[in-house]
Structure formats: structure tokens, C-alpha cells
Specification:
This protein has 373 residues and is α/β, with parallel strands linked by helices. The protein has 2 domains: 54-157 and 289-336, 3-Layer(aba) Sandwich (D-Maltodextrin-Binding Protein, domain 2); 158-287 and 354-369, Periplasmic binding protein-like II (D-Maltodextrin-Binding Protein, domain 2, 3-Layer(aba) Sandwich), CATH 3.40.190. It is 50% helix and 15% strand. The protein contains 15 helices and 10 strands. Strands 1, 2, 3, 4, 5, 6, 7, 8, 9 and 10 form a 10-stranded mixed β-sheet that branches. Helix 7 runs parallel beside helix 15. The longest helix has 29 residues, at 197-225. The radius of gyration is 30 Å and the shape is globular. The relative contact order is 0.17. The protein binds fe (iii) ion.
């Protein structure tokens, strides 16, 4: 009897234990896992919301001199994350500035994007912008690429380089902007007119770094060495070099990027014939300019405007924003595109870009004096 009782007890316990092991705990653990997963997902969603996609709503009116489809994709992404509708008004930089001035306080403009710091300075000196104090912007945009009181911030960088004909020029012989004025390059230099702000800014940077006298000497030498009277844009100078009208063209890096990626086979061919020289690498550095953004003095949507400014400087946006136009990102944490990397790293001028605007009048005066058309 005792034995039988013990046996039954053991059997009962075994069965009970088996039931417990195989069913209940498994169910429990599986339902626990599920809950945890759901909880984690919920937590991640909340995190994402607070990090990148704070719901702001409303709208923002952006006046921009840029006109790339990929820019629009970025604005759409911003709208998706914040609920802020971006109304884009495109135009020529100077026309947009004139329009803001005309519209005055009634202007619907919240933001202005221009190519060239000289133009942002123009808007600033007409009191068309207001200061923005943002930790995000100050962190993402290096100090020399923004106005010190926050009137404007660089978004993308471009270098003004010397493009040379790979068949006829030994790049060792030309290292600086001043080398363009050497006697051996008489009638070989292609550069656009003095009315163009890129050349005004280049000369303004020389005034800032080397003084007016040297800047004037350079401008004089350039006029002496011009292959022809200035005409056309940067790309036309490159085309003239490829066509043998001269050997050296002064141009912005992104135009070369555009030509190499053009749908026009002729432009690609021109781009392939040219080499890139980053000038003044052992001295003052290559001239760098920006396309940049400022908040309009008239802005009625300042919260939305600041949010878009900040968004455009984030790592996420910078890569796409810069690559849309074959430019360099301003955010130092973002690498430039492969094409730009293939041209090599370079030293840039170490000046605050406000000086391009401050020295603009002096640059134009010099150009007039030396007869740069
Ligand atoms: Fe341009």
C-alpha cells in the first residue's frame, strides 16, 4: 500500500509538473515577449517623434534662388516630419531681394536662400533679414560660414577654382590665383565679366587677405591675360578652354560637376578635358563661397522658418542638399560626394564670408579702374 501510494504521488506530481512546464509557462513567456516587443516599438516611435519630427504645423514661405528638384524632395521630407507646408517662390537672387524690399513689412517672405554670401550681405544691409539665435545652426554651420549675429547661415559650399586644359597645361606651373597673371599665360585666361558677383567676391576675398594693392595688381594682370573680352557664364569659359580659345578658366566647382553629369554629351566631353587646380594651397587657400539662408525681417512664421533652417543643416539633409548641385556640405560631419572627393581635399580661405560683402564696393571700384569689362 505504502509503495503504491508513493508511486501514485510521484506519478501525480510528474503529470502536474509536466502540465506546468509544457503549457502555462510557455504561454506566459510568449505573451510576455510580445508585450515587450510592442512596448519597444511604442518607445521607438515616441523617440523618433521627439527627435526629428516635432509636429509644428502651419506654413513657411521660402524665396529661393536655387532651383533643383532634389531641393523640393527635401522640403517635402521636412513637411512630412513637421506638418509645416513649404511654399517655394523661385527667382533670380537679385530679383528676389528687390521684391522683398518692394514688399516691405507686408512681404510674405519668411526665408531667403541665395547663391553667394555677397548677395546675402546685400539683403542684410537693406535690413531685409533678422537675426536667428539657434544652437542647432551654430553647431552645424562653421563660424566663418555664417554671419556673426545670425543674419544668415551657409548651407552649401563651392570653391572658385582654376580649370585647365589637360592636354596643353602642366598643372605644376600654376599654383595660385596670382599665377594666372604670369606672362606665359598671356591671352590664355578665360573669366567672366566684372558684373558677376562670383568674381566680385573672389576679388573681395583677396582684398580681405592680401590688401587692396595686391588685389588691384591681380585684377590688372587678369585683364592683360584675358583670352577674349569676358562673356557668358562659368560653363562658357570651360567650353572656350576645351575649344582651344585659351588654356585656363576660372570657375565654380559645381559647374564642372554639372558638365560631367550633363545629358548633353558635348558638355561631358568638355568636362573630361579639364583638370582642377585648387589655388593658393601653400598660402591663403582656395576661394570658397556659399549658398545660404536668412530669415526675412518680415517673417510671420518665425517658428516654422527656424525649424526649416535647422533641418537643412542636419546631417540627413546636408548630403542631399549639397549633392543636388555638386556642392560641398557646410556641416563638417557630412562627407562630400564621390566626384568632389575625386578632386582631392583642399585648404579654403580662412575669412568670415561677411567680408565678401563688406569689400564688394572696393572690388567693383578696382574692376572699373583696371578696365575689367
Ligand atoms: Fe552659379
Amino acid at each position: 500500500m505504502k509503495k503504491w501510494f508513493l508511486f501514485s504521488l510521484i506519478l501525480l506530481l510528474t503529470v502536474l509538473a509536466a502540465c506546468g512546464n509544457t503549457e502555462e509557462p510557455q504561454e506566459e513567456s510568449s505573451s510576455n515577449d510580445q508585450e515587450e516587443t510592442e512596448q519597444e516599438t511604442a518607445e521607438n516611435e515616441t523617440e523618433n517623434e521627439t527627435n526629428a519630427s516635432e509636429e509644428i504645423g502651419g506654413e513657411v514661405n521660402l524665396y529661393t534662388g536655387r532651383h533643383y528638384e532634389t531641393d523640393q524632395e527635401l522640403y517635402d521630407k521636412f513637411t512630412e516630419q513637421t506638418g509645416v507646408k513649404v511654399n517655394v517662390i523661385k527667382g533670380d537672387d537679385d530679383e528676389l531681394i528687390a521684391r522683398m524690399a518692394r514688399e516691405g513689412e507686408a512681404s510674405p517672405a519668411d526665408l531667403l536662400i541665395t547663391a553667394d554670401a555677397g548677395r546675402l550681405y546685400r539683403a542684410q544691409s537693406q535690413d531685409l533679414l533678422q537675426s536667428v539665435d539657434s544652437e542647432v545652426l551654430n553647431e552645424n554651420v562653421p563660424e566663418n560660414l555664417r554671419e556673426e549675429s545670425g543674419q544668415w547661415f551657409g548651407l552649401t559650399k563651392r570653391a572658385r577654382i582654376i580649370a585647365y586644359n589637360k592636354e596643353t597645361v602642366n598643372p605644376e606651373e600654376i599654383q595660385t590665383y596670382m599665377d594666372l597673371t604670369n606672362e606665359e599665360f598671356q591671352d590664355k585666361v578665360l573669366i567672366r565679366s566684372s558684373s558677376n558677383i562670383y568674381n566680385q567676391s573672389l576679388l573681395a576675398s583677396m582684398i580681405a587677405l592680401e590688401g587692396e594693392e595686391t588685389a588691384k595688381q591681380w585684377a590688372e594682370g587678369i585683364v592683360n591675360n584675358m583670352a577674349r573680352e569676358p562673356k557668358g557664364g562659368d560653363r562658357d569659359q570651360a567650353k572656350a578652354v576645351a575649344a582651344g580659345e585659351g588654356d585656363l578658366a576660372v570657375m565654380n566647382t559645381y559647374y564642372l560637376g554639372k558638365m560631367l553629369n550633363s545629358e548633353d554629351a558635348e558638355e561631358v566631353k568638355v568636362g573630361e578635358q579639364l583638370g582642377v587646380i585648387f589655388p593658393n594651397q601653400d598660402s591663403t587657400g582656395a576661394h570658397v563661397n556659399i549658398s545660404g539662408i536668412g530669415m526675412a525681417a518680415s517673417s510671420k512664421n518665425t517658428e516654422q522658418a527656424q525649424a526649416l533652417m535647422e533641418f537643412l543643416t542636419t546631417e540627413e539633409a546636408q548630403k542631399q542638399f549639397a549633392e543636388a548641385n555638386y556642392e560641398y556640405p557646410v556641416n563638417p560631419d557630412v562627407a562630400p560626394s564621390e566626384l568632389l572627393q575625386s578632386w582631392g581635399e583642399f585648404e579654403a580661405q580662412d575669412i568670415n564670408l561677411s567680408q565678401l560683402g563688406e569689400n564688394n564696393d572696393a572690388a567693383i571700384k578696382i574692376m572699373n579702374e583696371v578696365g575689367w569689362k
